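Ticket 4471: requesting a sanity check on a complex prediction with S-adenosylmethionine. Repro inputs:
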Amino acid sequence: MANTPAGRLYVVATPIGNLADLSPRARAMLESCTLIAAEDTRHTGAMLRHFGISRPLVALHDHNEQQRAPELVRELSRGAQIALVSDAGTPAISDPGYDLVCAAAAAGIEILAIPGPCAAVAALSIAALPTDRFCFEGFLPARGAARRARLEALRDEARTLVFYESPHRVEEMLEDCSEALGAERAAAAAREITKLHETVYRGTLGALAVRARGDPDFRRGEIVVVVAGAAPAPATGAADVLDRLLGILMAELPLKQAARLAARIAGARDNEVYKRALKLKPQD
Ligand code: SAM
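Returned structure tokens:
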């Protein structure tokens, strides 16, 4: 009896807007696999038709992934070559796929990446913000209080932050970011990447929030928000210098303005310098 070929799971990235971004290797895999597990079979079906590809499709989305993953693992154990795709970009990145990848790994199935587009990495690469260390935060909670709590927890994160957001929430999301992380924090919003209306807005969080409120285009299409990490806290030895600086500035300027200026000169966090300034303020 001929040996059954080993089943493999291929995690295949697909375009995030421009169909020319489907890699030749991804295309070849979609053409040759036994089965395509897709987040939305109609959406993927349309892409496959565009490329003249016809393969069996099964749905694998957030609501059925846990049940479907074991069935697909059984197919893989029998030698199936399964391609996993989502509607756009890289599967399992704020998209279905994680449960299937875990189930396949637990069953000892070989899992191979066919890498390609990912909106988070694409936005980071054009944001003009530090790329050496970054944190992918996916979607913030949709509800205001939970979103603000999450942002508070991220306030001192020094790595660049990358968020996905829906266009109808981006205005309030930027307002909350500006409030929690500081209006002066550098940020960028990349919308419609690889599409006709691709635009990158760069500026401070405060300025981006104002832009989002006033410019309806800002709130159209898909968007990734990239935010600079927190400035490092001043070294202990620098605390005396900061206090002296604050003393000089507070003698000439209102407390808030003095604190903001001192934070900028010292490269320190606005809110920490402000707290320091409150302590130094002469009591009436
Ligand atoms: N797995 C996908 C990836 O690898 O990019 C992400 C899927 S997630 C459900 C969808 C979010 O990705 C959108 O809400 C938006 O934040 C971002 N996104 C996807 N395509 C985009 C594009 N062309 N331009 C900007 N953001 C995009």
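Notes from triage: The mean pLDDT is 95. Leaving this open until the requester confirms.
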